[in-house]
Amino acid sequence: MERNLNTPEACHPARWWHTLPHEEGKLARLQCDLCPRDCTLHEGQRGACFVRQNLGGQMILTTYGRSSGFCIDPIEKKPLNHFHPGSSILSFGTAGCNLTCKFCQNWDISKSRNMDTLMDAASPEGIASAAAAYGAQSVAFTYNDPVIFAEYAIDTALACHKRGIKTVAVTAGYIHREPAKEFYAVMDAANVDLKAFSDDFYVKLCGGRLQPVLDGLAYIHHETACWLEITTLLIPGKNDSSGEIKALSNWVARELGPDVPVHFTAFHPDWKMGDLPRTPQATLTHARHLAMDAGLNYVYMGNVHDTDGGTTFCPNCQAALIERDWHTIRHYDLPENGHCPHCQTPISGYFGRFGKPFGAQRIPVRLARR
Questions:
Q1: Predicted pLDDT of residue 269
Q2: How far is CA 202 from the centre of its chain?
Q3: What interhelical angle do 177-185 and 150-162 show, nearest 10?
Q4: How far is CA 261 from CA 25, 54, 121, 167, 187, in A?
Q5: For 132-180, what is each residue's pLDDT tens digit?
Q6: Given this model, what pLDDT does residue 2 score?
Q7: Which residue, 7, 3, 16, 1, is CA-closest to 149?
Q8: What's the CATH number for 67-365?
Q9: Where are the domains of the chain?
């Protein structure tokens, strides 16, 4: 079916922008104030994210109410290991991205310039209703970066909260402070992709800067109630040196504290970096040990089968409390109060009563329009 970008939903008013001074008789340009790219747009022009557009002197969000698809996933796939382990989560995204990562693992969605990619239409209330119907405890804004569809994500989060459903942002965290305040205020958890610990990496491979991401991580952890976990995709020869991993781990320990979980995940060749090899498992193991040596209590390995690298250990007595193999929970030994049953050390995160885990399956679903 042909998509019409001029429908009311496709032209949803955007927020966080201002009109730039202009000469008399000339059309005004708009500046987007959502993220540090600070795009300035002539009439009809779209931002670097491709989904925010100057239309008639107003900023619009062209992907409000439109998704690239919905799936029921395990919460561990986000990845979140300390936020209701074993639960299921309804995941969806839209199209576009405000970074230009050459190694993007979801490039067919995040780099899409074809709005026909957005096959499913759903209102915020429709998404909340579907999550409840499928028994999902949470809804995840993922696949592409939710900060670029913040208005849609915020409205959906509010609708979910009315039904007692939690919300999760899977994001690169590239967003200005003012919109971040409203965005993270309605997120119960976030996994932020810290691409590297090098500004040069961000500039050359992502089209961004490192410092706004670090500032955002500190803001989330210290000034919001949003649970935070961090993921770094280790790319051979690009961001996997011992020095950089030590610097990243020391920064997390110093600025965020030892209890923020960090995930080191394996790269596979994709998008514009198909000539690089996959990340050796030994690199992930080495990174995990360096991070633990820096004082981090919860360090995980992702995109590989490694029981030690997936298990939550008590930071005091080292008991294996939640044993995982990739996204599958093999053994769970953490009481509802979140304290180690062997030494009573509190384990950071949100746990609660544990029943049968959802498992590693990924179930695509279609939503009827609401």
A1: 82
A2: 17
A3: 20
A4: 55, 39, 34, 18, 17
A5: 999 999 999 999 999 999 999 999 999 999 999 999 999 999 999 999 9
A6: 31
A7: 16
A8: 3.20.20.70
A9: 12-61, 67-365
